[in-house]
C-alpha cells in the first residue's frame, strides 16, 4: 500500500465557505439573562457584594400575599425561642411543656447531654426564662456552681441557700404537707399524706445508702416507712433525723410487729441494729447532720421561681453533694405534688412548673441502688402540667455505674425523655447513645464536630466551635440544629466564667 501526503486544504476558501453556508463557528452571543450577580461586562452593573435580604416570619395567613417569595420553616414555631436554625429552619423554638401542650411530644420531659463548657447551662437558662414568661414556674432543684442563682434572683424568685452554717433542709420536714392536709378532705387529703410519707421514706433510704454505699434491706425500708407515719400520727410534722432514730431505738409495738418479734425484743434489736447504726452515723457526720438533720431554715414557696443553692458545699464532699441534690429533688417534687392536690380540690389555682435537675451524674454514682430512689422521687404521683429537664455530661455518666441493673435503669431516664438535646460529644458516646437516639451519619458528624476546641493561638481568642450549638431530637424525626443566642441581659446574669475573666484582666494589666 502506498502512502501519499494529503494536500493541505485552502483554509481561506474553507473559512469563507463555512461562514456562507452557516456551518462554521458563530460569533459569541450575549447571554439572554443575567447571572447570579447581574449583567456582566461594560455597562452591565454586576453586583460584587450580595446583601443579605431581610427575613420575616409569620403564619401562612399573614404571608400568603408574598408568594412566591416565601418558604416553609423546618421547625415548629412553638415554645421558647432558642436561636437560629443552622440548616435554614429560621427561628427555632422549643421547651418541653409547650411541645407537650401542642402534641409534638407525648410527655413534657427533656434530657440535655453535652461536654462541659459548651453551653448546656445557657440553654437551660434560656428555657427557664422563656417558660417563666409563659406563666410556668421554674424550680431549679440543686445549683452547685451556681449557674442559676443570679438569674432566679433577677426574676424576683426565691434563692434557698444550703450548707454548713448557711442553711438546712430537713429531710423529714412534713410541715408543708401537714398544712395542706388541713385544707383538704377525702382522697385529696389521703393523696397528700401518703405521698409525703413515701417521699420522706425514700429520702431517708437514700441517705442511708449514701452513708453505707449500699441500699437498705427490705425490713429496714419497712421500718423507716412505718416510723415516719408514726411521727405524723403523733403530730410531729417538724421531726428531724434525731427524732426518727429515737423512735426506732424505743421500738414501739408497731415497729416490733414488722420484724415478727416474739416479745423478748431480741429479733427487733437484731433487725434494726444496722439501721440505727446508719442513722447515728448520719447525725455524727458534721456536714450531713448539719444540713439534713436540722429544722428547715427556709420553706420552698409554690408561687414563684426558686433555686436551691448548693454552691456553699465543698467540692470535695461528693457524698454531701449527692445527698443535697436528692434532698432538693425530694422537697421540690413534694411541693409540686401538694400544689397539684390543692388545685385539684379547687383550693388554689392550677400552677404549672418546670423542674430542672442538673448534675444528674453526681447523685447517680453516689451509691448502689440510688437510681431506684431517684426514680421514685421524680415519678411518684407526677401529674400533667409539670415539665422536667434533666442535665448530665455524657452517657458515660450513666454507663459508669457499678451495678448492671442501675445502669439499665439510669439509661431509662434518657429513653423516657421525649426531647433529647445534644451538645458537643466525643465519638465514643454514640456506642451507647446510638442505641437510644436514632441519629443519621450526618447528625453524628455534626455533634462530634462541635466537640472540637477553639483556636489554639492566643491572638485569635476564638470560642469553641460547638459553643451554643445543639441538636434537638424527637423520636426518629430529623434533628433540628440550633445556635442558642443570648441577649445582653441574659449574659449579665449568666457568666459562669467570671472568675476566669477577672484573672485575664489582671494578666493583661501585668503585661
Largest sheet: 11 strands, mixed
Mean pLDDT, to the nearest integer, reads 82
| Contiguous helical run count | 21
Helix content: 40-55%
Separation, N- and C-terminal Cα atoms: 91 Å
Backbone structural class = alpha/beta
Secondary structure: number of strands: 11
Strand numbers in spatial order across the main sheet: 2-1-11-10-9-3-8-7-4-6-5
Beta fraction: 5-15%
What ranges have pLDDT less than 50 throughout 5 or more consecutive residues?
A: 13-22, 499-511
Instruction: Report the C-alpha radius of gyration, rounded.
Output: 32 Å
Any idea what the shape is?
elongated
SSE layout:
Elements: H1 11-21, H2 60-63, E1 81-85, E2 91-93, H3 96-101, E3 109-113, H4 120-133, E4 137-143, H5 149-154, E5 158-161, H6 175-181, H7 186-212, H8 218-233, H9 241-250, H10 253-258, H11 266-284, H12 286-292, E6 306-309, H13 318-344, E7 353-357, H14 360-364, H15 370-379, E8 386-392, H16 396-399, H17 404-416, E9 419-422, H18 430-433, H19 441-449, E10 469-473, E11 480-484, H20 488-492, H21 498-510
Amino acid at each position: 500500500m502506498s502512502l501519499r501526503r494529503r494536500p493541505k486544504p485552502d483554509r481561506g476558501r474553507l473559512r469563507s465557505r463555512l461562514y456562507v453556508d452557516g456551518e462554521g463557528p458563530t460569533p459569541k452571543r450575549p447571554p439572554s439573562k443575567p447571572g447570579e450577580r447581574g449583567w456582566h461586562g461594560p455597562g452591565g452593573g454586576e453586583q460584587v457584594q450580595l446583601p443579605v435580604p431581610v427575613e420575616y416570619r409569620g403564619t401562612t395567613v399573614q404571608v400568603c400575599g408574598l408568594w412566591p417569595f416565601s418558604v416553609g420553616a423546618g421547625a415548629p414555631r412553638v415554645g421558647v425561642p432558642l436561636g437560629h436554625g443552622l440548616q435554614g429552619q429560621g427561628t427555632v423554638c422549643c421547651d418541653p411543656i409547650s411541645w407537650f401542650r401542642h402534641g409534638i411530644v407525648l410527655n413534657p420531659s427533656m434530657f440535655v447531654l453535652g461536654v462541659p463548657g459548651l453551653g448546656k447551662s445557657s440553654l437551660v437558662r434560656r428555657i427557664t426564662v422563656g417558660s417563666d414568661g409563659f406563666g410556668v414556674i421554674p424550680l431549679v432543684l440543686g445549683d452547685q456552681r451556681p449557674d442559676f442563682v443570679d438569674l432566679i434572683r433577677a426574676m424576683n424568685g426565691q434563692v434557698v441557700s444550703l450548707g454548713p452554717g448557711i442553711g438546712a433542709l430537713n429531710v423529714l420536714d412534713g410541715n408543708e404537707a401537714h398544712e395542706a392536709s388541713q385544707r383538704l378532705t377525702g382522697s385529696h387529703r389521703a393523696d397528700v399524706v401518703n405521698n409525703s410519707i413515701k417521699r420522706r421514706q425514700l429520702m431517708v433510704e437514700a441517705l442511708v445508702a449514701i452513708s453505707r454505699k449500699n441500699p437498705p434491706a427490705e425490713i429496714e425500708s419497712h421500718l423507716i416507712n412505718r416510723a415516719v407515719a408514726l411521727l405524723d400520727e403523733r403530730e410531729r410534722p417538724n421531726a428531724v433525723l434525731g427524732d426518727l432514730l429515737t423512735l426506732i431505738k424505743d421500738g414501739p409495738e408497731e415497729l416490733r410487729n414488722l420484724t415478727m418479734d416474739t416479745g423478748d425484743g431480741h429479733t427487733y434489736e437484731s433487725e434494726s441494729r444496722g439501721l440505727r447504726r446508719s442513722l447515728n452515723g448520719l447525725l455524727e457526720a458534721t456536714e450531713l447532720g448539719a444540713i439534713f438533720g436540722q429544722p428547715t431554715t427556709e420553706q420552698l414557696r409554690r408561687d414563684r421561681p426558686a433555686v436551691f443553692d448548693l454552691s456553699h458545699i465543698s467540692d470535695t464532699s461528693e457524698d454531701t453533694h449527692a445527698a443535697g441534690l436528692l434532698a432538693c429533688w425530694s422537697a421540690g417534687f413534694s411541693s409540686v405534688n401538694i400544689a397539684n392536690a390543692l388545685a385539684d380540690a379547687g383550693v388554689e389555682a392550677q400552677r404549672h412548673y418546670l423542674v430542672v435537675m442538673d448534675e444528674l451524674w453526681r447523685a447517680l454514682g453516689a451509691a448502689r441502688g440510688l437510681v431506684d430512689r431517684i426514680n421514685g422521687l421524680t415519678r411518684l404521683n407526677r401529674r400533667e402540667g409539670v415539665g422536667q429537664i434533666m442535665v448530665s455530661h455524657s452517657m458515660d455518666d450513666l454507663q459508669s455505674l457499678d451495678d448492671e441493673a442501675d445502669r439499665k435503669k439510669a439509661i431509662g431516664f434518657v429513653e423516657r425523655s421525649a426531647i433529647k438535646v445534644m451538645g458537643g460529644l466525643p465519638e465514643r458516646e454514640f456506642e451507647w447513645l446510638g442505641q437510644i437516639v436514632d441519629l443519621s451519619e450526618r447528625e453524628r458528624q455534626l455533634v462530634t464536630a462541635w466537640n472540637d476546641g477553639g483556636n489554639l493561638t492566643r491572638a485569635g481568642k476564638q470560642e469553641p466551635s460547638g459553643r451554643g450549638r445543639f441538636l434537638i431530637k424527637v423520636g426518629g424525626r430529623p434533628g433540628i440544629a440550633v445556635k442558642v443566642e443570648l441577649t445582653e441581659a441574659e449574659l449579665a446574669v449568666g457568666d459562669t466564667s467570671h472568675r476566669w475573666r477577672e484573672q485575664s484582666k489582671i494578666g493583661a494589666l501585668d503585661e
